[in-house]
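ok trying this again, last paste got cut off
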Amino acid sequence: MNKLLSYTEAKTTIPIHEKIGQLFMPAAFINDTEEEIQQIEKLITEQHIGGLCFFHSRASAATNFEGKKNIIYNESSFETLKKLINRYQKITKYPLLISIDAEWGLAMRIEKTPKYPYAITLGAIQNNDELLFEAGKQIAKDCKLAGIHWNLAPVVDINNNPNNPVIGYRSFGEDKHKVTNKAIAFIKGTESEGILTCLKHFPGHGDTAVDSHLGLPLIPKSKEELLANEIYPFKKIIKENIDSIMAGHLSIPALADGDNIPSSLSKKMLKGLLRNELKFKGVIISDALNMHAVSKNYTIRGELEWLAFDAGNDILCFAENILEGTETILKNATEPQIEESFKRIWILKEKAFKATNNLIHFESSDIINTKVAKESLTLYHGNLNGFKNKDFVGLEISKNKTSTFFNLINASIPFKKHSTNSNSVKELKSKFKHQKNVLVALFPPKVKPANLFDIPEEEIEYLNTLIQTKSVVLYVFGNPYLLNHIKTSKAKAVVIAYQNFEVFQETASKHFLEKCEAPGKIPVTINVI
C-alpha cells in the first residue's frame, strides 16, 4: 500500500478525474468469486476509487428482498476479509478507506466474530453510559484487527414507529435525549481507538413503516416537528465534531426540494439544512445507492451518482455505475465543487490512517456482554414474588429443544419443561391442561418484526391463552416490540432480556432464582393489550 499523501500534496498532484474517483465507495463482498474480486481490482486500478464498504455476500444484501436467496455460511469469512483488504490495498495508488456496518460488532456482517448487544438493548441501560463507551471501544478494536478504518455507526434514528421494518432494534429508543447521550458515549469509545464513526440515517429513519432498501418511505411531518425530535440527536452530536453523517433515502416534503425527491438527493436538505443551518463540517456519505428507494428511479447510468454528489454527498456509498458516474460528474461539476468534497474525504483519510493496531486476536466479548446483560435486564410488568417456590412447568417457545436459561434454573429447581420445537400446540394444550403455573421462555427466531418475528401465529395465540388462564411468568429473549402482540396485562410477570446470548440467559436465570435485580427500563413504548 502506498503511503497516504498529505492533503497539501494531494491537492496539487492528483488529477481531477482521480479526485472524482475518491468520491466513490462501492460495495465489496467477503465471499466473492475470483472473477468478482478482479472486477473490484479493476475499479481500484482504473477508477482510483476512494474506498470500499464491505458486506458478507451478494446474496445477503438487503435489496435481496429480505434474504430470499441462499446465503452461504463461511466460518473463514474473517480471515478472507483480512486477506481481501490486504490484496486490495497492495494494488491501490492511494490508500483505500475501508468501512463496514458494525453497529453491534463485526458479527453484523461476518461469521465467528464477536457479537455485541443491539442498540435497543443498550437503550435499556440506565445511568451507565460507560458501558456504551466500552461497547464502542471494543467494536473499534475488532475493526482495527480486520484492517477496517470506519464503522458506519451508530444509528441515531429515534424509533417511534413499532412497525418500522428496518430500524427498530438498531435504535437506542424513542427518547431523543437518551438516544443522543448513548450515541455520544458509543462514539467516544470508538474514537478512543482511532476508528471513524458515522451518524445515520439523517434526518431520521425512525418513524417509517417502509424499508428504504425496498421502497421510498414518506415522512409527512413539518420541519418544526422534525427539528424538535428526529433531527435533535444530529444537531446535538454535530457539536462534538463527528466524523461523518449518512444521508437516508426518505421522502420528506418539508425538507426536500419536491414531494418525490429522496432526502439523500435534496440540496435543500444536505446543503441547506445540514451544512448551512446545522453547521456540519464533516463528510456526508450517502446511504447505499443500490437501495430501491433511489436506484429504481434512475435508469441512465451515472445520473444517480451525479445527482447524489450534486445534492451534497461527499462519498457515494454502494455506487454501481462508477465509470459513468465519474464521466457525468466531470462533465457537470465545477472544480471547486469537486475539490471541496475531495478535501473533506482526504482529511478523513488522514485521520483514519493515524490509528495504530497492536492486536493479534479478538478479545473476549463476554465481559462487556455480561455487564450489559445485568444492566439492561428489564422487569416490564408484574413481579415474581416467590414464583420459583411454586410447582411450575416450563415452556420454551423456540426452534431449539432446550436453553441455557432453563438448564441453569433446572440445576437449582427441578421442573418439567417442554418446547414448541418438539411439541405441537395441540400436544402442549394436553400437557398443560391441569397446570396452574407456567414459566415461559420466548426466543423469537428473528429480530425484525415481519411475520411476527417468524414465530408461528398459533404459538403466539397459545401463549396469550396461557396468560389469560394460568399464572404465567414470561422471559423474552429478543426484540421487545414482540410484546405488542402479547396480552401481557394478566401475566404474573414479564421480563425482557433482549438478547439470546449465553450470558443474557445466565443473567435471566439468576433473576428468576431471585439472585439479582432487573434494573433496566424498556426504551420504547409498547401498546399493552
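PB: full thing came through this time. The mean pLDDT is 94.
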